[in-house]
């Protein structure tokens, strides 16, 4: 391989990472607010200040979950801005994926026939990959339509054709493709875990936050849900838990190194959100754009994940690992599991603190 080829490949990766970051940065504060709200609700429920299943609990849950459930709509708008597509048309297409009656059937894994075209079941809520593919296609279709249709018809024919073409392609191809990718990753985890829990923890802990970037982590999440439903316990949550704390540790180090007051505030809120189990603010708003802190997160997540695998700790209920959900891991190995999360946080913090990189955003 020549040096020019290597440089070219690095530049493509850099462009991809920067593009993903730009799509998520506009909604970082929303994700942070929702993450903190979900953490507070978990505390209120655990202390019986709010009764689970009550009206108050239901409303607060909706407030905390809405950002994540309808994440495809937010991503549709920001990615349309990035790809040069019609943002309102993009939001409409994301609405098709989340339309209640259609979504209820597809998320059960059932197929729907659209003029003989099979629309295979897939999970769309909180999923990023299908809508990113859809908006990318929307950008192409929209520009082609604008070239073909005359000005007098373009205003309504372009969105008409775009919604039909992109909607069908997304439901028939992009959604199932994203599911296949997620399931393939999940199968890979099962195989690794059968060989060694420590190796599985190392691999999953190192890779999990990278999977979050593209929404592939849902395949892993589904294994966790199925394990708890079938046998009442699960090890998946324990293995990727340290990577969540690693995001917070790296973001804290970036905050300390930064001299930008406004950005330090963003870092602080993202650290709090990560400790509550929501890593997107730290991932997309702090660590990923600076690349090296993200590398530290992967290393720390792998180290912590290996320790978590060694602990043998398992979750008795489904809950995103965080400070407030530690009780679900109560049982054999809980002490070592807590230590693994501390290790993930500390290793990421120290590595990021020692790394040399451009911390503060450049001023125009």
Please count the beta strands (DSSP E, at least 2 residues each): 2
Order of helices and strands: HHHHHHEEHHHHHHHHH
By helix and strand content, what is the structural category?
A: mainly alpha
Spatial extent as radius of gyration: 21 Å
Distance between the termini: 37 Å
- Binned, the helix content reads over 70%
Tally of separate helices: 15
Low-confidence stretches: 1-10
C-alpha geometry = globular
Strand order, largest beta sheet = 1-2
Largest sheet, strands/sense/barrel? 2 strands, antiparallel
- The overall pLDDT average reads 84
Portion in beta strands: under 5%
Notes on the structure:
The structure is a single chain. With 364 residues, this protein is mostly helical. It has helices at 3-24, 28-46, 55-69, 71-83, 87-97, 100-106, 129-148, 151-195, 197-214, 217-231, 236-257, 261-275, 280-290, 292-311, 334-354; strands spanning 112-114, 117-119. A two-stranded antiparallel ribbon has the order 1-2. Helix 13 packs across helix 14 and helix 14 packs antiparallel against helix 15. It starts with a helix and ends in a 10-residue tail after the last helix. Residues 1-10 have low confidence and may be disordered.
